[in-house]
Specification:
With 262 residues, this protein is an alpha+beta fold. 26% of the residues lie in helices and 14% in strands. α1 packs parallel to α7, α2 packs across α3 and α5 crosses α7. The radius of gyration is 18 Å and the shape is globular. The chain starts with a helix and ends in a 7-residue tail after the last helix.
Length: 262
């Protein structure tokens, strides 16, 4: 289980890394499935002709085992609150990044959105997020390969989730789109940056308001990483009479100046 120090770091920094959340053997089995779908040969770099190949939801046995690993289920309860999250059996989208001199075209700073807009519910580019993080408890990064500093690790702006809470408050329940926050992303450039490096089987559990970005893989190894959300059963509640706030909610309250340590 996560320690009190790890939970405090999640609230303050916006993420916690769980080393060895699932076995490296599970990661290897998953990579075999993903390599086959890319159409690339893992032993022939000449076949790696694109900077990024996006694969979609996978629920085969290795991925189901990874997302239901006991350390993660315990951490979900600890961070999002027991009964407040929806169990998963799959791992969402896979931006697989290959070493390439070509820009990937998707390396900008952003926050992930979590619910559809009324005008075009099927258009993901119009999706929104709000101060209650409707639809999402966590952003998760599942490392299915070893990822060092040269292997296009995800970039994280430490503490950006606290600032985003203040930015989102005026939008209320309607929320806003990721594109309407472009100036905000620029304004967080003074924050410390951390790279989501680690070994296959490690998982980063991130606050849903955390600002993050991809980066090109210039010289490293092919990078296999899943980035699924942990979906919520209900929006966050920021005024609980019993004070039973989850760490996700505590962080939002801290960002709004309502919680301890703000």
């Amino acid at each position: 289980m996560l320690t009190d120090a790890q939970i405090a770091a999640f609230i303050a920094d916006g993420f916690v890394k769980i080393d060895g959340a699932f076995p490296a053997e599970t990661a290897a089995a998953g990579r075999s499935i993903l390599w086959a779908e890319t159409g690339c040969d893992p032993d022939d770099p000449a076949t790696w002709t694109q900077p990024v190949i996006r694969l979609w939801d996978h629920a085969e046995e290795p991925f189901a085992r990874a997302v239901t690993a006991a350390p993660l289920l315990e951490a979900f309860d600890q961070l999002a609150g027991p009964g407040r999250w929806i169990p998963r059996r799959s791992l969402g989208s896979w931006p697989i990044r290959f070493p390439s001199p070509e820009p990937p075209g998707d390396a900008g700073w952003h926050v992930d959105v979590s619910f559809p807009g009324d005008a075009a519910p099927d258009d993901y580019l119009s999706w929104r997020l709000n101060i209650f993080s409707r639809g999402r408890c966590l952003l998760m990064l599942f490392l299915f390969s070893d990822i060092g500093v040269d292997d296009a690790p995800t970039r994280i702006r430490v503490g950006s989730h606290l600032r985003l809470a203040r930015e989102l408050e005026p939008f209320g329940e309607a929320g806003t789109t990721m594109f309407d926050l472009a100036d905000f992303y620029t304004a967080t450039g003074d924050l410390p940056e951390v790279l989501a490096t680690g070994a296959a089987g490690d998982v980063y559990l991130c606050h849903p308001f955390l600002i993050h970005a991809a980066q090109p893989n210039r010289t490293g190894r092919p990078r296999f990483l899943a980035q699924p959300p942990l979906l919520s059963r209900e929006p966050c509640v920021l005024d609980r009479p019993d004070g039973a706030y989850s760490p996700v909610e505590q962080a939002i309250r801290r960002g709004l100046g309502r919680g301890p340590g703000h």
